[in-house]
Design brief:
The chain is mainly alpha-helical. The protein folds into 4 domains: 15-166 and 211-215, no CATH class; 227-376, no CATH class; 399-505, Sufe protein. Chain: A, CATH 3.90.1010.10; 509-608, Sufe protein. Chain: A (Alpha-Beta Complex). It has 21 helices and 6 strands. The protein has helices at residues 17-43, 45-73, 81-92, 94-103, 111-126, 139-150, 177-182, 202-207, 219-231, 238-258, 262-271, 275-282, 293-313, 320-337, 346-377, 382-387, 446-471, 490-503, 555-570, 575-579, 594-608, and strands at 399-407, 417-425, 431-436, 507-516, 526-535, 538-546. The chain has a 3-stranded antiparallel beta sheet. Strands 4-5-6 form a 3-stranded antiparallel beta sheet. A hairpin with a 5-residue loop joins strand 2 (417-425) and strand 3.
Length: 613
């Protein structure tokens, strides 16, 4: 009798998990290489080296974590310790997690954040649940959420203070393209890239020719790898297909509901941020996703729904990793729905997928339409605007500073409250508005008292400006200047002051002046006063007062028309670079008003003479 042996019908692939993981790692390394090349070529060698070291550090940390856990868990029955450690390192596949996690981080993230995140992914998210095959959440996604929440101020897309080295970043705030786009309209309800500070077009968006997370911007490359990995059966095609399909269809519905350009809006929604990367390398994780074809399709639909919901309604510029974490929780429930023979309840199962897709389309489309309607209703109608011009034009702040302060008005019987303030500044760093995100102490007449006195309090702080706020000390109510607190809600007033002081704490203010004469024989010398605002070693802006220029002839007009370009030249310049200048560069000069340009340069030098670095 001849026996014929073939793989059982339950065995979908002849390849081992190790072989599959190695192919996945090869795809990730290719994305990493593209990130290295982009940073080397488009920005500079320092950025390229950082792109290399980010993944290397993550790999080394996860390797050490694997070794530590394997050594602690070693038993005599496992055989020689070294063999056991090597086996555990190879078959726990933490190196895949390390690469994915590093590729989701921006280039300016400090190394300690990478170390903490890698340890969190490996020790907490993976090994705390038993290791590979037992973890509930995708380790890389949870680690990205953890560091994003814990170290939000360190998630920078530039190295040190060199914002100007990255052409696609906002010069003042360092905001990424994704962050800038999400702030253009009502959350993600815009169909144009023209509002970004950098000149980014649709081709740049898909080719990855802009700064974002290290490996998430190369959308076309990632989609090509998705097809290859699906054909090679490294990933299940259903999850990314249903995920991206849900986002695309929802974007079409949103565009139709809100009057946006359907094609442009859909392409931007698919190409922006980490959508493609999350779909291909994180959502398809075989451990944390359902095992059935039905389940893999359903999590794609649910994740697509949540991603778009966070984008159009939430305050976050992205929603991918949060959507992945949520569907990881739902995976066991979805698997239970799919128990039994694969050919039973087929109509019911795919009816659930279709229903989830309909809900996603309806909810996100409806919310988007409401957001647009509310935004339009807050603007004056065409008839109103034509007959009665607005007395309060919308002012776009040059920069917004944020600060927080916590305190309790009644330590024994009420909880500690945190107040978050936003301080809007104009181009000369004068305060144009102060707003708070949280209400003060509630109960009794506190809220009413606060509301009635808040406008006068804001007017007071606008009057004293950044320097006045930094100089104030909230020792007690009696020592506070008149108008700087609201009687009856003293604790909330102190909380506001401390939040404001926190918002402006990183701003250094320097004063200087220079005197010269444009016409020594027939006009008096003029003195120019400047206030130079510095943040993290960078000149944020300059306020000029005093004798600016001679007023005869066209001198004053020439200076007023050309000074904005001069100011822009100095804004964003490192203080060290400015102090190294022997004379103003042509960009810092106004032709025809040379003496005034020189006077400005000398005044800034005088102001920064006391800069300590």
């Amino acid at each position: 009798m001849k026996f014929i042996t073939t793989p059982g019908p339950f065995q979908r692939s002849k390849r081992t998990t190790l072989q599959i993981m190695l192919e996945l790692s090869a795809a990730l390394v290719l994305v990493w290489i593209f990130g290295i090349v982009y940073n080397f070529v488009a920005i500079g060698p320092a950025y390229g080296i950082k792109a290399i070291l980010m993944v290397v550090v993550s790999l080394v940390v996860t390797l050490l974590a694997d070794v530590l856990v394997a050594a602690i868990r070693h038993k005599e029955s496992h055989g020689p310790m070294m063999k056991h450690i090597i086996d555990q390192v190879i078959h726990n596949y933490s190196y895949v997690t390390a690469i994915i996690f590093a590729l989701t981080l921006p280039i300016g993230v400090p190394y300690y954040v990478i170390i903490v995140g890698s340890l969190f992914a490996t020790l907490v998210v993976k090994y705390a649940f038993g290791g590979f095959g037992s973890n509930v959440f995708n380790p890389a996604a949870m680690a990205r959420i953890f560091v994003g929440v814990s170290f939000s101020g360190s998630m920078l897309s530039y190295l040190g203070t060199d914002i100007s080295a990255v052409p696609t970043l906002d010069l003042i705030s360092g905001a990424t393209v994704t962050t800038q786009f999400s702030s253009l309209g009502t959350k993600w309800l815009t169909d144009s890239l023209t509002g970004l500070s950098a000149n980014i077009n649709m081709l740049d968006l898909y080719m990855g020719n802009y700064s974002g997370a290290l490996g998430e911007t190369f959308t076309i490359l990632i989609l090509v790898l998705c097809v290859v990995l699906a054909i090679r059966k490294v990933i299940n095609w259903r999850t990314p297909a249903f995920y991206l399909g849900t986002v695309a269809l929802t974007s079409v519905i949103i565009a139709l509901f809100t009057g946006l350009n359907v094609l442009d809006y859909t392409l931007i929604s698919l190409g922006m941020g980490g959508l493609a990367f999350g779909a291909v390398f994180m959502l398809t994780d075989p451990v944390t996703s359902p095992t059935s074809p039905f389940g893999k399709a359903l999590i794609g639909v649910i994740a697509g729904f949540i991603t778009v919901l966070i984008r159009v309604q939430g305050n976050l510029p992205e929603g991918v990793v949060y959507a992945i974490a949520i569907v990881n929780i739902l995976a066991p429930v979805i698997d239970k729905m799919a128990t039994g023979l694969t050919n039973t309840n087929t109509l019911k199962k795919w009816g659930v997928v279709a229903s989830a897709a309909v809900v996603a389309l309806a909810v996100n489309g409806g919310i988007s339409a409401i957001n647009v309607r509310n935004a339009n209703s807050s603007e004056p109608s065409s008839s109103e605007s034509s007959s009665e011009p607005s007395s309060e034009p919308v002012v776009v702040p040059f920069k917004t500073l944020q600060g927080t302060a916590s305190s309790a008005a009644c330590e024994e019987y009420c909880s500690v409250q945190t107040m978050t303030v936003s301080v809007d500044l104009d181009e000369e760093y004068d305060i144009i508005d102060i707003s708070i995100a949280e209400a003060p102490t509630t109960g009794g007449n506190y809220s009413t008292t606060w509301t009635e006195g808040y406008d006068a309090l804001v007017e007071y702080y606008q009057g004293i400006g950044i320097v006045g706020i930094q100089a104030m000390t909230p020792a007690n109510a009696a020592a506070m200047p008149a108008g700087s607190f609201i009687a009856g809600v003293t604790e909330s007033s102190f909380r506001l002051l401390n939040a404001l002081k926190d918002a402006v704490s990183d701003v250094e203010v320097y004063f200087g002046n220079a005197t010269s004469s444009a016409c020594e024989e027939y006009c008096d010398p003029q003195t120019m006063d400047v206030t130079v605002y510095v943040e993290a070693g960078i000149i944020s802006t300059i306020k000029v007062t005093g004798g600016i220029t001679t007023t005869s002839g066209n001198y004053g007009t020439n200076w007023a028309e050309n000074y904005p370009a001069v100011l822009e030249y100095y804004q964003g310049m490192a203080v060290a670079d400015f102090l190294a200048l022997a004379a103003p560069a042509p960009e810092g000069m106004v032709a025809g008003v040379t003496v005034t340009s020189d006077r400005l340069f000398v005044a800034i030098q005088h102001a920064l003479a006391s800069y300590g670095g």
